[in-house]
Predict the structure.
Amino acid sequence: MLANHFSVTHKWIVIVVLALGFGFPAVGAGQAAAPETAAPGTDAAKPDAVKAGATEADTMKPGEPTDPKARKTYASALDWERHGHNDAALDDFRKANKQDGGHCWECLRRAYSLASKLDAYKDAVDIARDWLPLAPSDKEKGEVEFRLAMALQEQGIKEKKDKCIAESADDFKAALELDPKLAQAHFHYGVTLARLRQDDAARAEF
């Protein structure tokens, strides 16, 4: 009797197992699928630290240095700037540009800004002159010409150098030829012309 009972029970177990697809549960809402094995050499197969290094170029912003040494110096400059050490930041931004072969737009943009903030007008003039050949379009070249002219004008006024004032006139004119809509350039060009005692030309710019 017991043997018959076991036989019947065994049959029902076999039927249930077959009906459930050999007992392997389907992936449901509360159960995650097993992760697929990544192919060797793919990012998914690499440790997080390696992936982070591999994506460094992807996080690089346009205009930043690409040379590894330049990138370290650039990072140092950003850190100096964050902590208010603008002189050290200025030096490192200029150094990073040199390490990058003189092609770092962001290095020069930031260096110019700091030089202006520090009233280091001679540095600002030199930086703008290094920056100018990197401008990719007439509009951007006009903006850099304007910054060069502003640095020369400020240097001329603060240091009482008429030569710098005269040079700024040429750069304001060049900026406006490249981008006639630069309103600030018109105004400051007028200031320069007034200092050069070209009153009629100055009034035309205001």
User: Anything to note?
Assistant: Residues 86 and 202 are 36 Å apart (CA to CA). Confidence is low (pLDDT under 50) at residues 1-58. The radius of gyration is 34 Å. Residues 138-159 form the longest helix (22 residues).
